Sequence to fold (971 residues):
Amino acid sequence: MKTPPLPRDLERYADQARPPRETPGHAPVIGRRHGRIDGPAQVTGAAIYADDLCLPRMLHGKILRSPHAHARIVSIDVEAALALPGVEAVITGQDLMTPYGIIPWTEDEHVMAVERALFVGDAVAAVAALDEATAEAACGLIEVEWEVLPHVLDPEEALREGAPVLHPHPKRKGNLTKEIELSFGDPGAGDEAATVVEGDYFFHGTTHAAIEPHCAIGEVGADGLLTVHSATQVPHYLHRALARVLELPPNRIRVVQPAVGGGFGGKSEPFDLEFCVALLSLRTGRPVKILYTREEVFLAHRGRHPTAVHAKLAVDDEGRLQGYEADLLLDGGAYASFGLITTYYSGQLTALPYRLPAYRYRSRRAYTNKPACGPKRGHGAVQPRFALEVSLDKAAHALGIDPIELRRRNFIGENTRTVNELRVGSLGLLTCLDEVERRSEWKARRGRLPFGHGLGVACSAYISGTNYPVYPNEMPLSAVQVAADRSGRVRIFSGASEIGQGSDTMLAAVCAQELGVELTDVRVVSADTDLTPVDLGAYSSRITLMAGHAALHGTRQLAAKVRQAVAEAWEIEKKNVALAGRLALDITDPSRSLPIAEAFALAEARFGTLGATGYYHTPKDVHGDYRGGAIGATPAFSATAHVVEVIVDPETGVIGVEKVWCAHDCGRALNPLLVEGQIEGSCYMGLGEALMEHHEVGPGGRLLAPDLLDYRIPTSVDTPPIEAIVVEAPDAHGPYGAKEAGEGPLHSVIPALANAVFDAIGVRIDTLPLTPEKVLAALDARLEATTDEGGAA
Amino acid sequence: MTLPDPAPALLRLLVNGETRVLPCAPNETLLEVLRYRLALTGTKQGCDKGDCGACTVLIDGQPALACLTLATLCEGKNIWTVEGLADGPELHPVQAAFVRHGAAQCGFCTPGMLMSSVHFAESYTGSEAPEHGEIAHALSGNLCRCTGYTKILDAVAEATLEVAARRGAPGAGEEGGS
Fold:
């Protein structure tokens, strides 16, 4: 019989989980492989996620959703629902009339339908009751009289004259959310090219499928202040939206983010449940929790836009790119979400990592009566990357040039500008290519494998956060407060959102490095709008770079005070005092040291309570001077190269992925273990999108696979070995040189896989996902073509 | 969460080695009983329909989905959850390996993943380190969206050897999940 495990000693657990070779001592924390600071809490069940919270007198909420893809609400009668014993409040769209939206220029959402529901699953009313079952029963008693309207599910049709218009607007053409046409370089540059590769590509809709469903709890304190605990990845934007929609001063609202069970972009804007729990708790005076069902997560969605790309690539005899043109049509679903940005990203970010003398794109996004699309890991750039990298492979094949060599020849270089005027700093693409080429034994094996076996390559580059906030302002993009005291403990308060990527651990590592303490000496308080300074949230791969910089800024000031106090006590120069390994050290006299707690005490006596603030703003940008030129501008770009090996069974059409090699330039790996984890997770998600995942909407606008069985994400058996190769090309704009690692490694795995399939069986499939049916159809079509040729000869 | 009718039956469970007697309605799942009646929130609800494995617990030593198990059917049974894995101040080797290898990122699938992993490690009879494919099969009912499974498989492979070594030690041999 085991002894009961409580009380937990998480610090002791952390010690047990340390690798035997790890030597805390004086070794630098930055660059060290170490587990997450919240690891012990995660593996013991102690980590508290939103649905784990249970407040006294808490009610449970449920949201009634539209059964129609497009319908007008003639009337809503909530009397019967209100009369059900146990029901405490019912709200409808009429209670929250202020429109909102994450992008200030496209505020087209309401918490619940005001006049019309725009997709199957659009919120219509919400109930708070003593328990979930009663709330659900009450939803069934709400009588909605609908006038069903014609709907449109296809973006092409949505843009046609006469299509039902989702958001009538005097300045907008029908369902066109956004249209962008930009041209860079000489548009005729490709005309003389030796090889022109033209094709149509289709990237299906995919979704985040974080394992934790969205959950929020509203609570009104004795002081009348509203608190919303939510599984969000952007507490700051949620805070803003709550204030606006509920018409409350922002200083009367607090947003607290507990542990979050994955986001991937799917929790990066305000959702109906967060407003509903807020209003229901204000109405009832009691805490209210809403937990989405898994089906609701699929409806709330905001996943990757289905995107059709017509692409034209011009290449000279030497394999040098002459020009690239892309015409993109994005299926946006019912609301704008981040779509304005997505529409730009789908063009702007394609320009890297190659030298393109001429580049032109047209990008359009259409509203359709489906769940709204928005940002998913690799936001906007994953779909066009597929088209470009497959085009490159086709060009290499046509010219008889090795596809890796083709990419090398066209590498844009470091410290340069793209044709669309994005500033590029470090970019370790060539090292990435060398690594995947060597490790996959590309030279010896490619083209020499038997039929059905193949290798494919692809590359990409991605942003480390954007230079601009979602709404224009001059305030810091990220900020921290740091404090230390005589106990030797350090506290860092940051608005950054830990959603599994390791941002709290990164903050602790910066503190530990700069203040000479160990990771377990650092308390990280994050993502609580009452306790922490503003950070804009976990999106665009911005946290390591931006919050990391803010933490460096703050901790270095604090460290300077400690070093000065010690220097004065020792009567030496400040520059000769170092803080490391829980000690203050005299670097001119190795025999002299002081425990860090005593050093902090000296500083506390000298300067008073020890604290500092740090913040980060992007450097003055030098982006293109054209409308949209700021989009895609980032302090630092990461680079990625993939080689994927497949075995395709020509009998069944099944694609088996043998192995994935992914080399990713993250600038500097602050913690290689966590960087590898990001690379592996990104590759995994891309593999799912390439092979099996599909957020498919059927006739009538109903989701065909609104659960984790039918929306197939790869299991441990479906996932091949992934070799994550960390490449370091430190960037002058990153903290310690660091750049992003969470999103970049997703992009190129998908086209690398498609290119490997071509290498294996000699057919191209330009429509994702690469299902067995498509493989068989492509093989059949080729067989037919060769038979026809044979017959004619 | 579903609250019971006025006079629910009493249910007796052995949870993480302790006897618990509690009221339980006939339609309550084991997941609801663990999370809401016993406040053992380590066991997670990811889908509530048996697809994701986040609610995996050990029932009489065997991995089971708590969201698909009626609590009343567990009368007298031995339930082991993530809260019971650490032996007092000592982490289970699989738990320690998960932290060491970065096998948890968001940590939400981790409790269920750990229960399947511990079951695998403790019932492993091979004389050599298990192969990744073998572990992958054992964990195929537990979806993880963050890690790509690579580090999870590394962690379980390493911990399985530790568990085997521990089992070989005098006085050992007690199964964590039974």
In short: DSSP finds five helices and five strands in chain B. The CA atoms of residues 72 and 133 of chain B lie 36 Å apart. The beta strands of chain B are 9-15, 18-24, 56-59, 62-65, 78-80. Chain B touches chain A through 70 residues (CB under 8 Å).
